[in-house]
Amino acid sequence: MASQITRKEYDLAPLKNANLPMIWVLGGPGSGKGTQCDLIVKKYGYTHLSSGDLLRAEVASGSERGKQLNEIMQKGELVSLDIVMDLLKEAILSKLSTSKGYLIDGYPRDISQGEIFEKEIVPCTLILFFDAKDETMKERLLSRGKSSGRVDDNEETIMKRLKTFHDLSAPVVDHYKIKCKTFSAELPPQEVFCAVSKCLDAIQQQASA
Ligand code: ADP
Ligand code: MG
Q1: How far is it, in rounded angstroms, from Cα 18 to Cα 21?
Q2: Distance between CA 111 and CA 104 in Å, rounded?
Q3: How far is the CA of 165 from the centre of ligand 1 (A)?
Q4: Ligand 1 atom 18: the closest Cα is on which residue?
Q5: Which residues pair with residue 131 across a beta bridge?
Q6: Given 3-state DSSP classes, what are the helix, strand and coil percentages for the chain, each rounded to the nearest 5?
Q7: CA 10 / ligand 2 centre spacing (Å)
Q8: Residue 1 vs residues 4, 22, 40, 72, 192: alpha-carbon distances, Å
Q9: Which residue, 168, 196, 169, is CA-closest to 181?
Q10: Residue 153 near residue 141, CB atoms below 8 Å
Q11: What are the residues facing 181 on neighbouring strands?
């Protein structure tokens, strides 16, 4: 029998009342999501959350839930979406008193994940989509792989990640067209950030208007 992880109850009213920007950051592997999120955090004080990092941190914390997660991950099974959602909720709520907004990096991975997030947490305000050619992303990941120590930064896995991105994640951008701003991620990081800043300055102005 699959191990059951207990879900918790969360009071999301304070988050809803705070009405902070909830920004999904999407793009293929190696498109520069992490790079741009770091720059955004420095300039705008937003909180950067990545679902993969949250799962790895929960395992590393040694909590009971982390131990159960580790078992599931070691068996190569997929961690249920409920757990990812709970980790996101906890991380979002724990930063509420100091956060100026949230960057949700690399989530949703498909349309259904997006719909569940909006139903259970709050609607997404804006999507930043970093658009790069497969060849560009592949080259960047291969060079990141030389120092990242990430087991998935090798050529074979990169090709699979690119395929998964095109099959499942790219349709999210299309589905949420009205909320989505697309940036060419082929340009150098500071130039991409310049375009991103213009977009974020505009939403800050709208919020304070
Ligand atoms: P992601 O989080 O989308 O997987 P990263 O931000 O980790 O991507 O970037 C992947 C690699 O590409 C890193 O080595 C990073 O330094 C490099 N990189 C990111 N953005 C750019 C860019 N605009 N131009 C050139 N290299 C970039
Ligand atoms: Mg990343």
Answers
A1: 9
A2: 15
A3: 16
A4: 32
A5: 184
A6: 60, 10, 30
A7: 27
A8: 9, 37, 44, 12, 48
A9: 196
A10: yes
A11: 128
Residues of the chain with pLDDT under 50: 1
The token pair at 4 is 């059951």
Measuring CA to CA, how many Å separate 108 from each of 26, 79, 103, 142, 195?
8, 14, 12, 24, 23
Predicted pLDDT at 44: 95
Token readout for 194 is 């310049």
Q: Is 19 helix (H, G, I), strand (E, B) or coil?
A: coil
Atom of ligand 1 nearest to the CA of 187: 23
Dig out the tokens for 193 from the structure. 């950030």
**Type of residue found at 192:** V
pLDDT of residue 69: 85
Q: Are 166 and 157 in contact (CB under 8 A)?
A: no
Rounded to two decimals, what is the model's pTM?
A: 0.89
Alpha-carbon distance 106 to 31, whole Å?
11
8-state DSSP, 178: G
- Return the residue matching tokens 């909720």: 89
Could you tell me whether strands 180-184 and 126-131 are parallel, antiparallel, or unpaired per DSSP bridges?
A: parallel
Q: Determine the Cα–Cα distance for residues 52 and 60; give it in Å rounded to an integer.
A: 12
Using CA atoms, how far apart are residues 209 and 207, in angstroms rounded to an integer? 6
CA 130 to mean position of chain CA atoms? 12
What is the reported pLDDT for 51?
84
Looking at all shown ligands, the one closest to residue 38's CA atom is 1
